[in-house]
Amino acid sequence: MYRRLLINIYQVRNGLIHTQNTRLPSTKCKERESFAPVIWAPCTARPLGTSSISFSENKENSTSLSEDKEKRPEENEAKEEVNTDGQKSTEISNATLTLQLETEPVDKPEDSKQVEKTKSGKESLLELLGAMKVEVTTVRKIRPSKTPRMSERPDQEPMESTHSMFQHATAEGSQQQGTLNPALVAAVSAAASTLPNRHQAESELLKQLRKHEAVPDTQRRADGQNIGHIIADMKVGGRKTNGRSSARPTSQIRFDDDGKGYTQDRGITGELDAVRRRKSPFTSKRLNIFTAGMEQDTLSVLGPTLWDIDLANQIVQATNQAPRNGFEEMIQWTKEGKLWQYPINNEAGLEEEASVPFHEHVFLEKHLDESFPRQGPVRHFMELVITGLAKNHHLTVQQKKEHIDWFRDYFRQKDDVLKEAEA
Amino acid sequence: MASSCSQALRHHVCKSSRILRVHLQKAWPNRSFVLNPAADQQPAVSSPEEEIVIPKKKTWSKEAVLQALASTVNRDPTASDYRFQDDPYLTPKTSSEFKLFSLSQESGRNAAKYFISTYPKYFQKDYAQPHIPCLMPETLEAQIEEVSEAALIERIQMRKVKAAVDLYDQLQQAGTPVSLDVTNQLLDLICFYGDCDPAQENVPEQRNEETEDVQDEPQTKKGRASKASDKLKAAWKENNNAERIFALLSEPNTHSYSALIRGMVKYGAYSKAFSTYTDLLNNQLKADVSTFNALITAAPEVKEKYNEKWELIVDLLKQMAEQKVKPNLLTLNAVLKALRRCGTVGKSQAFPVISEMRALSIDPSLASYNHLLSIFYKPGAPFQGQTDILQEVMNEVSGKSFTPQDPDDAQFFITAVRICLDTKDIEQAYRVHELLGVGENWRLLGNDFQQNIYHARFFSLLCMMENIDVVLKWYRDLVPSVYYPSSNVMRDLLQALDTDNRLDLIPQIWKDLKQLGHGNRQTLVEELLTLMAREKQNQEVQETFAECALDIKKMYDTGDRGKVMMSWTAGSLSDLVSVLLAAQRRQDAWEILKLFKTHNRVPSEELLDKFLTCIKESGDVNQALELVQISAGFCLPGTPKLIQRVQQEFLLSEQQKSMLSDLEIQTFNSD
């Protein structure tokens, strides 16, 4: 599905190009494209970061050069050389190297010349390209569910499909003549008309257009082969073409130094990845005002202040405290202290007695010290009193002591009466 | 490509972490070996696993048993609120009854408390064993009469602002020194109440005011306005007692400054608070967290521009870091709340603030999320590209149980559901509702009024987005056990019924409407009638419609309990007639037709035409003539047409024919 989409997009783009440049023999284009993958295949080693670009540019040149062949005969020769070599699948790396060596010097001055010439026209053109990109991305966004497939796709496979794709393109290109984006036509012709050599300029512009469609394809293929190289490229590739790229709008930079460019332009893959990997905003970077392990200066803490109490009160007021069922109401009562606490403890509320052992309650003779007579009715009475107290579970030890003390005082007061009665 | 790259990286990370873990596992047993003295003594015998660990005695909290039991009870959608289960007679059926009953329960409780506190001498007998302090009368009168620090403390504890200030002055005049702590407490008290005596807590009205705004929107606005005016009334006064006492302090400490600044912020003296803070810095003191929190709250008030506000907040935070004051959750919430008033700056800074607090292991509470949502979704503003913020927030919070930590926590659910309603995002609404069911989160839905708003919004969204079966499922679940829908929401429900073509449920809904006390909402009833009259249903449904229509008619006739009487309109009457005609209840329809006359309404021609068709089916000539007479009585322009139809379609006697021709002439003349 996703591939289909891609192809469609390319078709549209190609359609635009071809309709614009009808003079281009379509068979030629097809031919060039068909050999291009053969060159890319051995490219896996990627001796230079810019290699794939030079190829793509090269390929573009070859199409545009159909007109001004006489200008660069040596380049065409090189291409044919490559073509034959590539078909044999021998000594390909040699061919690529030579090709590169030959094409690059030609390319660069050419490019910069063009930049100077067509600046104003190109800007509008690039705007259009930017707009095209936006369209593409919206299409992709609609089908985010197709993402996983992309990574599964075998990297080498698209050779045929690219081939057929261009066939499609050429076929449909003529059909789409009528439905050509008028803005694009206007921009290209406007740009071209500003230049002395109209045809050449136009073909240059088309070359730029072609780059946009061809390069992502190249990149993808190359990327799939070895991640390590990308990483290496990222480090090494740097910005060799700084001088040139600074003059170029951003949408073009990515073709020049592929290392950096990938992150920006890998349209579909990049964007979908971004969607997949997009971090939650909650993991965004922090303000970095405080340090994590910061120690707090301990201020004198005086227990809850009025403000703290009020805050707690406000929270309680703001939240729903109404019980939802009987048990919750009982929880509420327990918290208020109105309910006997669970687990049931029959000594609840007798906390001050908890530390008193039972014998203090039961053996009360020790309190009948010498202040009471050793024998006689008073002693007898007091023994009965402590027996009663020992059995009384309502009184605390302290209360029992007080009870005995009361009698001690009482009998002391009544001492004379007792003496009189000789008790 | 980047994906495969990242996969490779992830794989690598996984691998290395696994290796690390293996290493750690190797290292740990050795370590525990060394740390364990028993193992040290007899290294040959025991490996650490065999060691018997005696579990510690577990002390259960006093609520543990009850909590376990409470967790077994689920909500019964057929039962009313627990508060009303004591007496079936008092089961509220309408929102106003709900309001009335819950308020009377509350105020009864308050009245009892008021009496106990006002006449403590009658409530001294302590029956409870063990003693229950909360049932005993509170002491409201100061016990210590003499002029002393103890008396001052007592007055502070009883929150008697005026008395405490007077006593403090007396102490000062007598030359008795008051300790700094007590003075600070006094400052706290004065600043907290803004130098006015607090309204007595047990006075029943106070609680009423809060709960009064339970149901209707306009009333809440009134309630809020009155609260706002209360605050305005109690503005910070120049040179009030707090400032005076503060000035008397020879060496005010952090606490004194804190009290003063918080009081100033609370009562709207924002710039003064900042100057007091500068004063604090000049005195080589450090502020505490609460002071900073108060200042952050005040920050948006003292600056005009968004970025100035934010700069001030950042400045305050930096000063906190400098003074080694650890921020707390309230700091986070204060910052976020301030960011709500910083426009676009708020949007860019909200997440960094949260990350910052996370780094300090301060987890956001629901109030933080509420502020966050409010930053990104301004009510009334268009929503573009922000819909995922709610989603992100829901990703963060869903499945978590929150404890109330901030008074604003209770705002989260209504904010979230408001955004769902505004963005028509039913999926998130379900997630919000699900979150409500987690743990104790239902407590954070807030009071009855907020619950009502929440449910109204949630249910409106359901009516809008879901098909009628789902809506009705929720309807049965929520109404009336937790939610008494307002007439607007019921109209939404009717619309949902209409869209999904389930008008056959209308009689059922009418019963509920009546029970919910919306039986006398004219617009609602009229809409109901229109819906019933609009299309012809099958016979069975028409029959129930007719019953329902007659029931509605009864509502018009009897204005029960002094409620607003509904008045018949031509539209409602003709709808009623058409419903009855469709159910072949000609006699009932005839009665209604007579009502046009008594209520001075004019029936439409189509209605009379329809009526005539119906009469024709039964062939009642007399009634047909009467119909024509009624039509002539209203001087309807369609009367001649009716006469013509009667003449053509009915078998008429001579007398009737002459009568018709008379009528014809009459209408002709009147024209």
TrEMBL record, chain A:
GO molecular function annotation: structural constituent of ribosome
Keyword Phosphoprotein: no
Keywords for the protein's UniProt record, in alphabetical order: Mitochondrion, Ribonucleoprotein, Ribosomal protein, Transit peptide
GO cellular component, one term: mitochondrial small ribosomal subunit
Protein localization: Mitochondrion
Polar residues bias (residue ranges): 50-65, 84-101, 243-253
Entries under Pfam families matching the protein: MRP-S31 (PF15433)
Keyword Phosphoprotein attached: no
Residues in the signal sequence: none
Top-level division of the source organism's lineage: Eukaryota
InterPro entries reported in the protein's UniProt record: MRP-S31
Residue ranges, annotated region (Disordered): 50-121, 143-163, 237-266
Residue spans of biased composition, Basic and acidic residues class: 66-82, 105-121
Family as reported in the entry's similarity comment: Belongs to the mitochondrion-specific ribosomal protein mS31 family.
Name of this chain's protein: Small ribosomal subunit protein mS31
Protein source organism: Cyprinus carpio
UniProtKB/TrEMBL annotation, chain B:
Keyword Hydrolase: no
UniProt GO MF annotations: ribosomal small subunit binding; rRNA binding
Keyword ATP-binding annotated: no
InterPro entries associated with the record: PPR_rpt (IPR002885), PTCD3 (IPR037387), Rib_mS39_PPR (IPR055063), TPR-like_helical_dom_sf (IPR011990)
Localization, UniProt: Mitochondrion
A GO CC annotation given for this chain: ribosome
One record GO biological process: regulation of translation
A Pfam cross-reference name: Rib_mS39_PPR
Residue segments, region Disordered: 201-229
Keywords: Mitochondrion, Repeat, Ribonucleoprotein, Ribosomal protein, RNA-binding, rRNA-binding, Transit peptide, Translation regulation
Primary location group: mitochondrion
Superkingdom of origin organism: Eukaryota
Family membership: Belongs to the mitochondrion-specific ribosomal protein mS39 family.
PANTHER family per record: PENTATRICOPEPTIDE REPEAT DOMAIN-CONTAINING PROTEIN 3 (PTHR16276), SMALL RIBOSOMAL SUBUNIT PROTEIN MS39 (PTHR16276:SF1)
Protein's name in the database: Small ribosomal subunit protein mS39
Organism: Cyprinus carpio (Common carp)
Lineage of the organism: Eukaryota, Metazoa, Chordata, Craniata, Vertebrata
